[in-house]
Amino acid sequence: MYRSHTCGELRETHINTKVTLSGWVQKTRDKGFVVWVDLRDRYGITQLVFDEDRTSSKLLEQARHLGREFVVQVTGEVIERSSKNPNLATGDIEVLVDEVIILNESKTPPFTIENETDGGEDLRMKYRYLDIRRNPVKNNLIFRSKVSMEVRKYLSDQNFIEVETPYLIKSTPEGARDFVVPSRMNEGQFYALPQSPQTFKQLLMVGGMDKYFQIVKCFRDEDLRADRQPEFTQIDCEMAFVEQEDILDAFEGLTKHLLKEIKGVKISAFPRITYDDAMRIYGNDKPDIRFGMEFGELNAVAQHKDFGVFNSAELVVGIAVPGAASYTRKELDALVNWVKRPQVGANGMVYAKYNEDGSFKSTVDKFYDQEDLAKWAEATQAKPGDLICVLSGDANKTRAQLSALRMELAERLGLRNADEFAPLWVIDFPLLELDEETGNYHAMHHPFTSPKPGQLELLETDPGAVRANAYDLVLNGNEIGGGSIRIHDRDVQSTMFKHLGFTPEEAQAQFGFLMDAFQYGAPPHGGIAFGLDRLVSILGGQETIRDFIAFPKNNSGRDVMIDAPAAIDQEQLRELSLKIDIKA
Ligand code: ASP
């Protein structure tokens, strides 16, 4: 028996009992005649004491030679500590050791295994198994497990069935490149790893499963923007005989359950906003509504006043930044430079201080009098003491820039409170999105999303105007889930493929299996998928998903611990009938 108790278990009530513990040596303190050792396992830390008087000098010598991260088994008696440590769950006691067995030695770890470590990100990734021994990482993994368990509990209580779907499949377009896997037995042919189980979950509905879910890995080969992973986890769901309302209802339930069980937060309101309104009011399809700073459009009050920049703009739009009228000239210049950074891309910024005394002072006083600026204040809902920031130009670009500024200022002003949870449904997404480069339309959600009833004809005349039964669940400015009501009719699905630029042959070759299935009594159906990594990190009050993934990849998609991806040998290539031809 390696242990009678864990290192987090012993309390005052155990005093005078004989115990055996196993764990890692976190640290030793040598006072000459007595040595203390902190022994750690997943459950906590217990202080061990080796005492020349009470045990033996041989034992003391042994204790002195225990290195950091040695794995040891000790037996001894639980005694009361003379100086108690209220910060440690086991702080009332210590174990007076009478036997030590070294189960395994350890090289000196490359960084300290403590809450605050001296190890940089790269080093910690390379030795992730050591990083996982640290409380912050360990606790995140335990937290994630708790969230997954609650998801399973809730959904199975609601009659969802967890079904596994295959990883070696054919392309499921979700807007990224596929990772592909060569098939040895089918020379020259490849599987694609699923970008999501989309087509399979729809086939499960045709198969009559009625309510499906799966906590599942998805794979997308995309350029890794900040905080994305090439493989990530979804809570994937699908339901038959449902309308949009049924899905929103079911997943409000799941979100409420998680917030209550995990955070002890009760949420009753799940406001809804259309995609068009979200873009107009927040410049963003995943608005953070924990704070205001709603956009005020200023075309009507700021154009035709001799200020050429505004007159030639498609959109003039501003926000009121609470309490920022007191910003110094230096701070304001820095803000203007911030919006001009290439990442944001504005040409400049006009601002107006709404002073406490009710007067205005702007960078464009030459063109706008106090009365004009009062109209700006009205449109942006500014109050005395606020700063009105105004951007202008191409409507879409300007909205995106102002949205970036809104988020940045909210962050700086401490308005993005991690303990506050503000969910929001964004509904009525466009069905199609124009690719500016190619001039082609592609599916905004995915090609299986159904247009709003009665809008099929509009596909011919004004494709960009067609709205979809598609929805996103947004939490604190992050998209945590997205889904849609699906097409379940073969003809509609092939019309959709046609509009996405597939020839009938291409559509049949790639998605014939799905369209064929639709001919055998496909029920109306729809679903949603939540990004589990992101959801867990938001619930955990942190921003990076990597911190909640046991073995994440770095920004170049590499696992630096196992050193993947890696070349494969000639023999393996030959078996797969592959030749490598790296372009210089
Ligand atoms: N497959 C979709 C996605 O990964 C989710 C859905 O439509 O249910 O975003």
From TrEMBL:
Annotated region described as Aspartate, given as residue ranges: 198-201
Cross-referenced CDD domains, in alphabetical order? AspRS_core, EcAspRS_like_N
Keyword tags: Aminoacyl-tRNA synthetase, ATP-binding, Cytoplasm, Ligase, Nucleotide-binding, Protein biosynthesis
Read off the Pfam families from this record: GAD, tRNA-synt_2, tRNA_anti-codon
Q: EC annotation?
A: 6.1.1.12
MF term (GO), any: aspartate-tRNA ligase activity
- Determine the domain of life of the protein's source: Bacteria
Reactions accelerated catalytically: tRNA(Asp) + L-aspartate + ATP = L-aspartyl-tRNA(Asp) + AMP + diphosphate
User: Which amino acid positions bind ATP, per UniProt?
Assistant: 220-222, 229, 479, 531-534
Q: Which residues bind L-aspartate?
A: 174, 220, 445, 486
Gene3D superfamilies in the record: Bira Bifunctional Protein, Domain 2, GAD-like domain, Nucleic acid-binding proteins
Q: Which GO terms describe its cellular component?
A: cytoplasm
Aminoacyl-transfer RNA synthetases class-II family profile domain ranges (all copies):
144-552
Q: Where in the cell is it found?
A: Cytoplasm
What is a biological process (GO) this protein takes part in? Answer: aspartyl-tRNA aminoacylation
Its function? Catalyzes the attachment of L-aspartate to tRNA(Asp) in a two-step reaction: L-aspartate is first activated by ATP to form Asp-AMP and then transferred to the acceptor end of tRNA(Asp).
NCBIfam families for this protein: aspS_bact, PRK00476.1
What does the sequence similarity comment in the record state about its family? Belongs to the class-II aminoacyl-tRNA synthetase family. Type 1 subfamily.
PANTHER family given in the database record? ASPARTATE--TRNA LIGASE, MITOCHONDRIAL (PTHR22594:SF5), ASPARTYL/LYSYL-TRNA SYNTHETASE (PTHR22594)
Q: Quote the protein name from its UniProt record.
A: Aspartate--tRNA ligase
Q: What is the lineage of its organism?
A: Bacteria, Pseudomonadati, Bacteroidota, Flavobacteriia, Flavobacteriales
